[in-house]
Specification:
With 269 residues, this protein is mainly beta. It folds into two domains: 153 residues, Thrombin, subunit H (Beta Barrel); 103 residues, Thrombin, subunit H (Beta Barrel), CATH 2.40.10. The protein is 14% helix and 40% strand. The strands form three sheets. Strands 1, 2, 3, 4, 5, 6, 7 and 8 form an eight-stranded mixed sheet that branches. The protein has a six-stranded antiparallel barrel with strand order 9-12-13-16-15-14. It has a two-stranded antiparallel sheet with strand order 10-11. The longest helix has 10 residues.
Length: 269
Amino acid sequence: MRHPADIETALFDETTGLAARIGRDIGAYTVALLSVTGSGPNEVLDFQGSGTLVSVHDTLYVLTAAHVWEKFENAAGIGLTLDEENEDHRFFIDVRQIVPLGPKESSSWGPQGLDLLFLKIPPSPAAELRDVKKVYPLTVEIPEPPQVNSLEVWVLLGSPRDQNKITPKHASLTINGFFAKIRSEYTLGNHDYFELEMNSTFPGIPKRFYGVSGGGFWSVVMYWSEGGGVQWFLTLVGMACWQIPVSSEPQIIRCLGAKSIRTFVPQLL
């Protein structure tokens, strides 16, 4: 049986395509959120943040940060990105059809608040999204990965504003995955948090993570299959909500943890 250390070698060898396949897999659950104001020739687009498609029972939600949804206060519609790379597409939902659900504390989210919302998607657009995207089944209990010899890495998914091209009429957005180092994991009150280190001196790592707010933080457990290939098990373990101001590298991103996210699930059942 091959050792998990061999997986790490393959993961950081671009010629294997392993990191790209994992990124595409997680990216299929991820959306960028655009606000739409005006209509017709007066329509204006603006990029606001990131989110993850999750389901509780049969209902589809976009899990995102509360401060991202605040930016839709005067919007007529919400636009979501699909998996159609390098192809223009439109997927808009009237904001009046969106039902935002979240903890009472979300009204005062702040750096340490419960800065999250579940945006309930109506049945018709939900069915369309399920045809082209993946939806993560969110349960109260955190699922256990396979009990095998494995390698675990952590990936933050989102759409950094500085890596996007946005005009009032057109947005070219990229969903990117960033391997993360966990700086600390802690609990305040009933909420759990991760703080992640991101070194922006590395290629492709932005200095500012504006736009990644609401994006998912994932555990990726990789192991060798019986056939000799690499398989992986994905767990949504957090959501990006805050970039801590620092004067030097690395950049620090605060995420709400899995328990904070799942605490609200029983209220959605």
